[in-house]
Specification:
By secondary structure, the chain is of the alpha+beta class. It has one domain. It is built from eleven helices and nine strands. The strands form three sheets. Strands 1-2-8-5 form a four-stranded antiparallel β-sheet, sandwiched between helices. Strands 4-3-9 form a three-stranded mixed β-sheet.
Amino acid sequence: MIKMLKEEAVEHGDKLQLIPIERLLNLHHELQAFEENEELNGFQKWIINDLYKFDVPEVGFTIKSIILIALPHPSHAKIEFISRGEEYNFVSLVMPDFDRTEKYLKDFLAIKNYHIEEAPNIPMKRLAAQSGLAAYGKNNICYIEGMGSMFSFAAYFTDITCKEKEDDWSSMRHTDACANCLICQNNCPTGAIRADRFLIDNEKCLSFFNEGPGDFPDWLPTSAHHSLYDCLKCQMKCPMNKDYVNHMIGPIKFDENETDMLLTGNPYENFSPELKDKAKLLGFDKWLPAIPRNLKTLIKLSNEND
């Protein structure tokens, strides 16, 4: 069954690993020990203690394992905005079609009388790097052969049996290519990737600031801003992504009315169906409170550089 499930994912362009549910509890203990023995910042402690969920929920079936699946996507999208009659061109991340993946999994498993339930907020990167699905890079991003880091994870609880002796669980897998490479460290615009440890300082990462509202700190260099949200610098320069960085889409165009709606912080429910589709495709529907400030910053920098 596990082999057939993996083959089904590959047929749809994805890759997955089936992980015994007991590994989630094991990982909880590992992360608690990690927190006790490592100097972590406040954001890292919040991720371990508040964001991650380790309890197995009550659903309509007996949960026996986790389907962890990697969905490839383009490296980025070119995006075009019109504001006050002027055209502005930037870049954005791109999200895969999670609904498509969930549908084919449900269809495939229903025939065999198995079930899935979404498993949000479990530590997917860590599960991937210990289950054999991926390896962890120095920039704290996962890499998978044939995808680089240009993918997103989704996870589902399921009633498929997967015994611990059947999985490929190990300690954290790190990418060999990172051992003697400083490219991501040298290209990080905020110095978040550290020379003295593998764990980044995520409270200095550009993504930490441009995925939430509020003023940017004074020390943050204006040259760091380049994407509608998040940060692409380390991934675009990484040698492990050399075969994938030119896989892009776009331009995704926003007319003057759509641009104004984003600049003024209009709520998602006021978006047209077309604007909702663009927000979902580019993934910024999850970070809407930050988008007006980010877009204004990019437009201002563009005008200053003209």
